[in-house]
Amino acid sequence: MARTRFRSDAGLVARMSTVMLLLGALYVSVFVGLALFTNLSGPFVLFLAAAFGLGQWYFSDKLSMKAMRAREVSPNEAPELHGMIDRLCVLADMPKPRVAISDTDIPNAFATGRSPSHSVVCVTTGIMRRLDREELEGVLAHELSHVAHRDVTVMTVAGFLGVAAGLVMRWGMYFGGGRRDNNALPFLVIWLGSILVYFISFVLTRVLSRYRELSADRSGAYLTGQPSALASALTKISGDMARIPTRDLRQVEGASALLFAPAINKKSLSALFATHPPLEQRLEQLAKISGDLSRPTG
After folding, report:
1. Which residue ranges make up each domain of the chain?
2. Does residue 294 carry a pLDDT above 70?
């Protein structure tokens, strides 16, 4: 992680490393499979891998911003928001990210970008209307923690690896062709492989996503020293999210894993597929931090 005043998290580092290692192996296996079971040449397969990787790496912030219909704002356009982020960045001793606003009533926020020096923190107009200053600062500290710990970068790459692997395997199935005429085995292998690749990557990124949200809650709460403000923000946002029409929530599905709170208005069918930990777990953790901070020192 970047050297900042955010608390380090060995558990997060270990999980990010494990997920990237497993997905990297999965990714390599996909392109080896393409080379073995299709007519695609080795150099072309390598070109595909490099093109997918570089494209997602470089344009990750732009893709997330587009999914949220957000725009970058200057200090003149949003002086109070910039002021909060300036203060938190000084407190955390980290580079200031770009600042953006998404014009939607959905109360949420997210951070994205390929590195701490090429990142953006975005809030919605809905969250700015609903939260007071301390609550919004808690949310912003949470998002800045994602940037400082570089888990935004890891989630970007991890999400890309799984999706690209599945897409490329399906692409190879339809356009690569088998090595032998009238041989359905290569097509069957690629089809089954694409399903397996997507499922494994889906589960791995969901597990990492839930832990990184708990880690960002901890880091943000300790940085500001106000876990109760972050807990209040979580409670408000989760309550209001239940009243947002499903049609509006679908507009931000593309960035759901990056959001401060899950963009859903119903309980998930299974915790395995959730991008965020349960609200109760997050509030319980913040209550413990509040108790920790209130204990006398020395």
Report:
1. 10-293
2. yes
